[in-house]
Amino acid sequence: MFRGALWLLAGRGCVGRGLSTRSGGSTPDWTEKVSEIKKKIQSALPGGAWDPLYDTSHLPPEHSDVVIVGGGVLGLSVAYWLKRLEKPRGAIRVLVVDRDHTYSRASTGLSVGGIRQQFSLPENIQLSLFSVDFLRNINEYLAVVDDPPLDVQFNPSGYLLLASEKGAAIMENNVKVQRPDMAALPSVITMVSQEQESATDRSPSLTRDIRQEGAKVCLMSPEQLQNKFPWINTDGVALASYGFSTSSSRMQTSGGKEMTLKRIHEVHVKMDHSLEYQPVECALVINAAGAWSGQVAELAGIGKGPPGTLEGTKLPVEPRKRYVYFWHCPEGPGLETPFMADTSGAYFRREGLGHNYLGGCSPTEEEEPDPGNLEVDHDFFQDKVWPHLAHRVPAFQSLKVRSAWAGYYDYNTFDQNGVVGPHPLVVNMYFATGFSGHGLQQAPAVGRAVAEMVLKGQFQTIDLSSLLFSRFYLGEKVEERNII
Amino acid sequence: MLKIIIPTIMLIPLTWLSKSNMMWINSTIYSLMISMVCLPLMNQPCDNSLNLSMLFFSDSLSTPLLMLTTWLLPLMIIASQYHMTKEPLARKKLYITMMILLQIFLIMTFSATELIMFYILFEATLVPTLIIITRWGGQTERLNAGIYFLFYTLAGSLPLLVALTYTQTTLGSLNMLLTQYLTERLTHVWGDSLLWLAFMLAFMVKMPLYGLHLWLPKAHVEAPIAGSMVLAAILLKLGGYGMLRITMMLNPTVNFMAYPFMMLSMWGMVMTSSICLRQTDLKSLIAYSSVSHMALVIMAILIQSPWSFMGATALMIAHGLTSSLLFCLANSNYERTHSRTMILVRGLQMILPLMAAWWLLASLTNLALPPSINLIGELFVTVSMFSWSNFSIILLGINITITALYTLYMLIMTQRGKYTYHIHNIKPSYTRENTLMLLHLTPLLLLMINPKIILGTMY
């Protein structure tokens, strides 16, 4: 029993390892022999259901204070800020679970990687501003002692947004007013274009809200991001499905109407390619599952009810496929290329120093590709993206596409802006998802906001109360006019 | 004494043969009745002790502890009802059986006459406790906790067995009533010092003394609620009781052998109180506060003055009730939010105001507010320690301050302030939980009126 317990504790450290090293180090042979003997006995005897001492070190722990569903940049950002903002150190146990530890279909790894502050919604601008600041000073936040400093390939080359004729003059004036010192590289360049697309509704608010702080950045690769969180238990648990175990209680609102509030007690984490599953008892669940947040929310019972009621309001986040193309153009723009977004919706940026570019275009509603797989449609580039690019940048008339990939937007079908904060009915589920293509650039700030909401009960640095879930029920759209 | 032991043994068939819907009720009510039967033991006819038989006796030291033990069993059963709901019926019965078995051993331990019988039952209490911790505890760390608990206590008490058998062969009898009249005194030679150490080590580990206390935070935190209650309330006091009985035989060696343990206790008391200020886990905070209070008891027993013995006994009873109450309160939090972290569950006063009242009272008794019996214990110990050595008042004063600090920190953190969003739909307090808290508080508050029954033999 002692040896068996020793073997069991080997995964936990402390007693097991300490005792074995003191006894001379023959314990590994012993544990193998013990497991072999166990297997022989088990194969000889008829199988029983009760196996009290099997090794569960590959499963997630049985208990965690916060479970973050989704290990992309938003989930990891929330985990980082939770650990960073907790007052006594080591107070909260955070578990990040992701369905695929290779991140092959995660939006984080497939993103184009641009960051901008030209939003119309003030919250979005503040989020991006903080995120830029985070990435500029990333070594203050994420550096690990004795490791080399991080290099996130931060390229402040500017973000170019195009507006049409009408609003351009106003925009230029306002930009000059807000940024009297134009000595440095201008961070926002506005150009007059010949298209008649009416950008009037976006320009006044743009110029009113933009604070010219920093430049735009190409985001670092997510692998670097996820390697630098030392306190977090990111076991990389691969799983194929989730389940929640909830309890509900009926309560009455002050108007006498009956509502059912729910609590999530356990998250059932099922291991990939096996039948093992581990119920993780938790106090909070944070839904940062990106494109699949809607499905995770349905597992918790969000949206099951008569439509039009709060119970029946689903989380309107669904995956939308977007293509990214990588091409080479020897006469293309050089080092000073900003991340350019054309008025037609096509965008591109410079990648590296060898005249390579990344870019794409958001399809219109009618042309939405099927999000069932991540196959790339090359005709889309030929028909929709290349003409606009070639028109905007004449050098792109001759280019060679090297590769292409597709990724998902966690598209918020309601108003294309993120959902942050708790759900009114499922009381211990928080959201950090639905950013529809600008999640990666706002991840540090959103993570901090969610951590503040969890730890302090309210948003403290950036007030994101307009992005709460309740707006879906109340029908208040928080629209962003500058969607790429 | 058989009138207590036989009914407690018969609680086991009661549990196994009850109908499933009456099982909890039966065991609770009958164990409450048994604790009522214990009350007449308080009627001590003479200064010495109530000698009931060759094997069992009860005097004014063991009677309050016996009362505490029998009072605690119904409370443990009440507290376990919620987290056992999902278990199959046989396992529930097994759980209650473990608790009853533990109860039987504890009753016999506290009333044993022979020291060898005391030792056997002292060891026997480890087995049901280990089963409760490792089988029904919360997290995977409970296996580690169980092993620490078992081996610390076993390793400490093995020398005790040797010492007891040696004394039995030399003295001829280990009857506690007779050893009081021991005329042979221990000397200052090495052998006698080691004998002293062998006697005391088991109880030091059980108390626990500061250097040997590592098992306690683990065991208390990982145990289920009934396990935590019985550990905090009774099992720690087994060590105190044993020390109180044995020191009568061990003069005058104790006068100089006590110094290392006094130092460890004084330092440990301040250290563990300070650790409480940095704890994030609620149960861990209460566990460390237990270590701190028990350090006071160890110091009181080692200086062997009438006031200190009175203080030690009072403190043991008071701490048993308070600590058990705090664990029940922490468990009521845990059952609702599935997290023991304090910062995730705040501002409960707004949501559960009656429970906040119990939290307040528990915190007030924990920080030894006058006129509670906790204060009587601490005050007597402090005063007698001051007369033993003037310098110790500094450390004792620091400890009392830090105790108040961490207790208030725990109260304010869990009860006051704006509540966290995700607890606003927790279930309101059950009557069962309120009963549990009240049953803890009633003796605690009523004893304020007549504390002399818990002041032990020296009163």
From TrEMBL, chain B:
Presence of keyword Cytoplasm: no
Record's subcellular location: Mitochondrion membrane
EC number: 7.1.1.2
Record-annotated NADH:quinone oxidoreductase/Mrp antiporter transmembrane domain positions: 112-401
Any Gene Ontology biological process: electron transport coupled proton transport
Entry membrane topology: Multi-pass membrane protein
UniProt-listed NCBIfam families: NDH_I_M
Protein name as catalogued: NADH-ubiquinone oxidoreductase chain 4
Gene source species: Myotis myotis
Gene (UniProt): ND4
